[in-house]
Every structure is written in C-alpha cells, then in structure tokens.
Amino acid sequence: MSKINRNSPINEIMISICIPTYNRAKYLESLLDILIKLPIQSHEIIVVDNHSTDNTCELLKKAKYERLKFFQNSENLGMVKNWNRCIELASGKYIIIVHSDDSVSPDLFKYYLKIIKTYPDAGLIFSYPQIINENNEIIGIDRRLNRGLIFKGTSFFELLIPYNLPSASGVLIKKECYQKVGNFDPNLVFLPDHDMWLRIAFNYTTIYIDKPLFSYRKHLENLYLSIPKQQYQKDKIIILKKQYHDLNSKIKKDYRLLCYIELYYRLLIVGYLKQFLPSKFSSKTLKTFLKFDLKLSIQIILGYLISFFQKMPYFENKLVRSNHYFPKWRFSIYLKSLKIYFTPLGKNLISVVVRKILRQISKIIS
Fold first, then answer.
1. Where exactly are the structural domains of the chain?
2. What is the pLDDT of residues 31-52, one digit of tens each?
3. What is the pLDDT of residues 96-140, one digit of tens each?
4. CATH superfamily of 2-226
5. What is the pLDDT of residues 189-218, one digit of tens each?
6. 229, 102, 82: which is closest to 167 by C-alpha?
7. CB 211 within 8 A of CB 127
8. What is the pLDDT of residue 326?
C-alpha cells in the first residue's frame, strides 16, 4: 500500500473525511475541490484508492491536494473492506465516509460541528440527500422524515428494522461507535450500511438534520442501481437474524424488540418464498413461519398505540421544540401481520390456537 503526504497532528483532528474510491477520477476531483476549502486545522481528508486502473493516482498528485492523505491499496479489497480500511486510517474523533462519486454541501460540516457541540452524546448524525446526475444537475431528493429529530433509546433502531434510512454516504459517526460495535460486515453484499446503522442506533443517540447537506449521484456505473431484488431481500433476512441474535445474547434481552424483529422476519420470509421460490412455498411452509401468537401481536400493537401520545424532542430552524412522534412505519408491520390472520389460512391458525387454549383450560378444570 502506498501513500503520499501527511496532514495535521492527530490531537488537532476533530473530523476525518474519508473517501473510498475505485475508478472514479472523473467525479473525485469535483468532490475534493469542495473539501479542500474546509478549515484544515480541525479536519483531515483521507482518500483510499482500491487499486484503481484509471488516472486517480495522477489526479491526487496535483499540488492543490498536497495537504490531504492518499493511500492506495496494493490490490482491490472489495467495497466494504475498503470502507473498513478508511476507518482504520482515520485519526479524528468523528468519521464521515463520502463516496467518491457523490458530493457535499459546503455547509455540511458547519451543521455537523454545531450538533457535535450541542449533543456530544450523539453517535450518528445524518441528513437527507439531493439526487444528482452525471452533469451535477439536481434530479430529485430523498427526504423521508419531515423535520429534524433526536432519536434516543432504541427508537431509531426500531425505525431502521424495516427501512435502511440513512444513505451509505455522508453520515457522521463518532469513532468510538466503530470501536464498540465493530466494522462493516464484508459478508453482506448490498446492505452493510443498514447493518452498521442498526448496531450503532441501538447503543447511541441518533440525530437527523432536515436539510439536503450532501448529494447522491445516479449514473450508469452506480452499483446500487444494479442490485438484484432477490439478493437485496437475502441481505435483509440475514441482517434481521443477526440483530435478533445480538439482541438476545450479546447486547441485552428486550422482549418487545425481539418480538418485533421476529414478526418482521417471518413476514419477509413469506414474501421471499412467494416471490422467488414459489416451488417451495406451500400452506405447510406458511404455517411454519407464521406460527406466531396472535395475542402477542395485538399486545404489541396496543403498545405502539400508546406511543402515539408520547412526545419526542426535535429541532428545526435553530429552535428546540417538542412534537408528537408516532412510528407509523413500524406500526404498519403489525397491521400486515394482523392481515395474515384474517386470510383463510390465518383463520385456521387462530382456530388451532383457540383449541390449544381450551385444552389447557380443560386440564386445569379437571
């Protein structure tokens, strides 16, 4: 592995801006030209080239980039391992990974530094992206939350179970988060970021800034545009199993969360079998995966109805306010599970449960 140039002393670095890249020289220069204008005394810029075959090395030798750090892998490590290499090389207290074909707003770090100062316990900070094309033209936005939010406890973890909310690029993470939960999982093909956000969200406060502070680029060479839906579903199922195991053994037991993960896992499995393995799908298979207590599902739903009346703080336009927070996305999972019980097969499952309960009552009476 080769490197050129060194930056400021380690004790001066607050944020490490890490750019993993592979054959993206035509987009990398415009991103770096924004980043090098940032106050260098509290930042470091690290470019980790994954053994590119284009002119990335020649680009980084330009005089205007002499203050950044450049590393080149001796071989292609793969996308996820290159992300992990960025983390290993970072010296800052906070790390942000920005993909080399994306872009950022010059105001991004102004907002991030303000959040860090106000909420030092926050482990994950993110905003929503603008979507740009190959010519840097804005073609859309990806805004899924309608106000700035502070997620404490396990609220963001629960929201993430069915949804991969933050983009893989432009998310600010406290370095100690990686030290506590580990690096990205290279065994996940398309959703290593989702797995990481879940691990961090369970342990740390998450903050969402309701502003388009970075740009996600859509182009023909973009990996995520070619994701096979079947592989995407496989990764989601693997992540759910992994989170269930971690929650049940390594982290701590939370019966409500375990039920939520298991219920969504079963729904996902049923959908996967129907869509991708119809030859293996049968009523018997469905019964196996949906053998879940209806009473328990209703209890969980009632719990989330109660959460409708809970309040969660959020900030917007520099003002800290309070607002009703109702997790409608996760609530929809329970509605879907209830729907299954009202299908013909579901009614059969209910009758089985009722018969079992009646048998137990008769035993007690006798």
1. 2-226, 229-311+326-365
2. 999 999 876 567 899 999 999 9
3. 999 999 999 988 988 999 999 999 999 999 999 999 998 889 999
4. Spore Coat Polysaccharide Biosynthesis Protein SpsA; Chain A (3.90.550.10)
5. 889 999 999 999 999 999 999 999 999 998
6. 102
7. yes
8. 39
Alpha carbon distances (Å) from 71 to 47, 75, 115:
6, 12, 30
What are the Cα distances from residue 183, in Å, to 83, 173, 174, 196, 199?
9, 12, 13, 8, 10
Contacts of 311 (CB under 8 A, 6+ apart): 322, 323, 324, 325
pLDDT higher than 60, residue 249? yes
Confidence (pTM): 0.80
Question: Tokens 């284009």 belong to which residue?
Answer: 54
Chain centroid to CA 273: 25
Q: What is the DSSP letter of 247?
A: I
Specify the DSSP class assigned to residue 293: -
Give me the amino acid identity at 256.
R
